[in-house]
Amino acid sequence: MADISLSGEHHVDGIQANYMAQVQRRRLYGGLTLLIFVVLMVSGFNVADDRNAGGFWDGLHQIGDYPADVLSEAWEKRADLPALIAKYFPALVETINIAAVSTLIGAIGGLFLSLLGTRGLAKWPRLIPLFRRISDIMRAVPEIVIALVLIFVLGAGPVPAMIAIAIHTAGALAKMFSEVSENTDLKAVEGLASTGATWSQRMLLGVLPQVAPNYVSYTLLRFEINIRASAILGFVGAGGLGYELRNAMAWGPGRFDEAAAIFILLFGTIVFFDQVSSRYRNRLTEGQGQ
Question: In this structure, how many other beta carbons lie within 10 angstroms of the beta carbon of residue 209?
Fold first, then answer.
C-alpha cells in the first residue's frame, strides 16, 4: 500500500511539474511576443516620424490649437449657427441617402453571398470557396480606395461613394450573415426539399425566418457605420456633408463657424441613428424594449 501511495504522489508531482513547465514556457513566449511587438511599434513610429514634414513631438503641443480656433470662432458667431445648420441640412440628407442606399444594396448582395457560401445551404457546394473569396476581397479593399477609383472613372459625386460603400458592405455582411446561417436548423430545409421545393423556396421559407432578426440587426449596425463612411468619403470628392466639411476646413479662419455647424450636424445624426438602431437591434435579438 505504501508503495502504491508513493508512486501515486510521484505521478501527481510529475504532472504538476510538467504543467508548471508549460506555464513558464507560455509566459516566456508571451513575453517575447510582447517584446517583439513593442520593438516593431517603436521602430515603426520612429521611421514614420522621420518621414513626416514635422516631428510628432515638436508639434504635439499644438494639437489643441485647431479645435480651440474652431470653438472660439463658432462661439463668436453663435447667432449664425442655426442658419448654417439649415444651410447644410440638404448635404446631411444626401449623406444619409448615400448610407441608406448603399446599405440596402450591400445587404441584398451580402444575403446572396452568404447563402451561396454557407455549407449545407449553398446551391452549388463546389463553388463555396469561390463565393467566400469574393466576399473576402470585397471587404478587404477599403471604401476610400474603391471610391477614388470610381471617382476617376465616373467623376466626383455621390454615386461613386454609394457604389464603394455598397461593395464593402456586401463583403462585410456576407461574412456576418454566413456565421448566422451556419447555426440554422436544417430540419425545415430538409422538410421543404422532400416536398420538391426549389433552392430559393427553401431559403425563403426555411432559412430566412430563422435568421431574419440577426440579419436585420447586423444591417442596422452596418447602416451606422456607413453614415460615418459616407461622411469620410466626402473628403475625396464624393459629395455629401463630408465634402462641405472639407471645404470649410480647407478655407481656414473665417469659415470655422461653418465647420462647427457641420460637426454639430454630423455628431447629432450619428448619435441619433446609433440610439435608434441600438434600440431596434435589442428588440430583434433579445426582445428588449417591448
Answer: 11
Name the phi and psi angles at 215, rounded to 5: -60, -50
Name the DSSP letter for residue 65: H
What percent of the chain has a predicted confidence (pLDDT) above 70?
91
Which amino acid appears at position 263 of this protein?
F
Cα-Cα-Cα-Cα torsion 35, 39, 40, 43, nearest 10 degrees, comes to: 170
d(CA 282, CA 288): 5
Report whether 184 contacts 170 (CB < 8 A): no
pLDDT tens figures, 162-216: 999 999 999 999 999 988 888 888 888 888 888 888 888 888 888 888 888 888 8
Task: Specify whether the CB–CB gap between 281 and 220 falls below 8 A.
Answer: yes
Number of other residues whose CB lies within 10 A of the CB of residue 95 = 30
Q: Among 97, 250, 224, which Cα is nearest to 161's?
A: 97
* Predicted pLDDT of residue 36: 92
Q: How far apart are CA 174 and CA 187, in angstroms?
A: 23
- Please measure the distance between the N-terminal and C-terminal CA atoms of the chain and give it in whole angstroms: 67
Q: How many other C-beta atoms can be found within 10 angstroms of the C-beta atom of residue 198?
A: 11
* Alpha carbon distance 50, 113 (integer Å): 44
d(C-alpha 156, C-alpha 37), whole Å: 41
CA dihedral 284, 108, 164, 156 (to 10 degrees): -110
Please write the tens of the pLDDT for every residue from 50-98.
777 666 777 777 777 777 877 887 788 778 888 888 888 888 888 899 9
Cell of 121: 445551404
